[in-house]
Amino acid sequence: MAGLCGGLPKPLLPVCGRSLLGRELDALAAAGVRELLVTAEHRAEEVAAAARSAAPAGLRVEVEVLEATEGIADSLARLAPRLPGPFLLWLGDIAAGAPDLAALAAPVERGEAGAALAVAREPDPARRGRNFAVFTEADGRVTRVAEKSAEPGTEWKGTGLYAFAPGILFACAGTEPSPLRGERELTDAIGRFLGRGARAVAVPATRWDVNVTAPEDLREAALRALDDLGRDSWIGPGAEVHPGARLRRAVVEAGARVEAPVEVRDSVLLPGASVRETVTDRIVESCGAGA
């Protein structure tokens, strides 16, 4: 993903004209969230500026720059003084369709659980293994979680959205780097939290979700967002589309160009892309290069 859009941090990548971060801000504001703490490390000044400019009215945004973090659990442990009560956590590289944040937050707000994990059913073990597996009882109580695991026994995957009571922060502080990636994994912290007797529940809170880790993931997110809009194509401000071109389930982001009477189908043209030939099932960044 480092090359897309000039190496932008993933939260700033566009999805139908709105960055991943902007889409999260919109959903949070719509759910009644009024205070947001954005953390940034890579190109932090850009992320901070984008967060403040993209924030909907009524949403107060603060930015915390974290340097040399060792994973999500490490980041949360560092932020403990700023998180005195229950909070939502939304990872910045996650696109989600119509997340029900109120349903996710409710068990923690009511004191029924110390953690609520947004989950989605994923029968494909390979795709489930790209996120983390969530094992539950019949009533939705989480018994354990497993990072990057395709092991059998569950079809639930985590989707990068959480509600937590502050107790999770103590579990994060005591979490050691994992052998998997050398990071202090949030899943390990959740496991420690459960081991201390905390209750966690799984909540199917999203219509769809995409963990944006590869160019193809960004294409999937954009096309799912396009479907949510109920449109066959989306053309961003300043984009140029030849009058003879045919767009079929296509996203042409701002500044992209379709310069010939060709078909663009099931594809996304990112800012700066320029095509003169038929494009199918691709994401295109610039000069006709695709990924």
Overview of this structure, please?
This protein has 291 residues and is of the alpha/beta class. The chain has two domains: 4-215, Alpha-Beta Complex (Spore Coat Polysaccharide Biosynthesis Protein SpsA, Chain A); 231-284, no CATH class. It has helices at 20-30, 44-54, 72-78, 101-109, 125-128, 167-173, 186-195, 215-229; strands at 14-15, 18-19, 35-40, 60-65, 87-90, 94-97, 115-121, 132-136, 142-147, 156-164, 200-203, 208-211, 233-235, 240-241, 246-252, 257-258, 263-269, 274-275, 279-280, 283-284. The strands form six sheets. Strands 5, 7, 8, 9, 10 and 11 form a six-stranded mixed beta sheet that branches. Strands 13, 15, 17, 19 and 20 form a five-stranded parallel beta sheet that branches. Strands 14-16-18 form a three-stranded parallel beta sheet, with no helix packed on it. A hairpin with a 5-residue loop joins β8 and β9. 41% of the residues are buried. Mean pLDDT is 92; it is low at 287-291.
Distance between the termini: 10 Å
For CATH, the homologous superfamily of the largest domain is named as: Spore Coat Polysaccharide Biosynthesis Protein SpsA, Chain A
Report the C-alpha radius of gyration, rounded. 20 Å
Give the DSSP E fraction (strand runs of 2 or more residues).
25-35%
Descriptors:
single chain, 291 residues, alpha/beta, Spore Coat Polysaccharide Biosynthesis Protein SpsA, Chain A, 2 domains, six-stranded mixed sheet, five-stranded parallel sheet, 8 helices, 20 strands, disordered C terminus
